[in-house]
Each structure stands twice: as structure tokens, then as C-alpha cells.
Task: inverse folding
């Protein structure tokens, strides 16, 4: 069993948020101390659809530049 060092209201707040669409709990950092593992967590919200499109567009642009540089160096 694991202990979560949060107050009951904090745990309820996290559960409500995670059950909503688009929210998730993300482990940020793990550290070990005296045989125990401590974990820092964050509540994160996913990207909106238009943000995803922008990210994909940027990624595709970078790939094209890399391909052009690769073919130019050959």
C-alpha cells in the first residue's frame, strides 16, 4: 500500500479534476529517502485542438528542414 501525504479535501479535488476530460496527474520527480519513495505530482491539462495542430505543423516544418539538410550534405 502507498500513502499519499495530502489532505482529504486535496485528494477529492484531484479526483474530481482527473475524472473530467482532459486532466491527468503527472509524476514530476521521484526521490528515495530512507527506503521510501517520494513523488512530486502535478495536475496537467491537455492541449486544445488548435494547439495540437500548431505543434504538428511546427514538427512537420522541422522535419522538412532536416530532410533538406540531410539530402544537401550527401
Result:
Amino acid at each position: 500500500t502507498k500513502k499519499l501525504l495530502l489532505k482529504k479535501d486535496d485528494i477529492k479535488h484531484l479526483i474530481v479534476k482527473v475524472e473530467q476530460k482532459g486532466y491527468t496527474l503527472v509524476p514530476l520527480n521521484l526521490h528515495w529517502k530512507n527506503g521510501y519513495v517520494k513523488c512530486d505530482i502535478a495536475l496537467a491539462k491537455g492541449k486544445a485542438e488548435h494547439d495540437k495542430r500548431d505543434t504538428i505543423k511546427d514538427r512537420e516544418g522541422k522535419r522538412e528542414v532536416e530532410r533538406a539538410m540531410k539530402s544537401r550534405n550527401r
The mean pLDDT is 84. The longest strand covers residues 23-33. The radius of gyration is 20 Å. Strands lie at 23-33, 36-45.
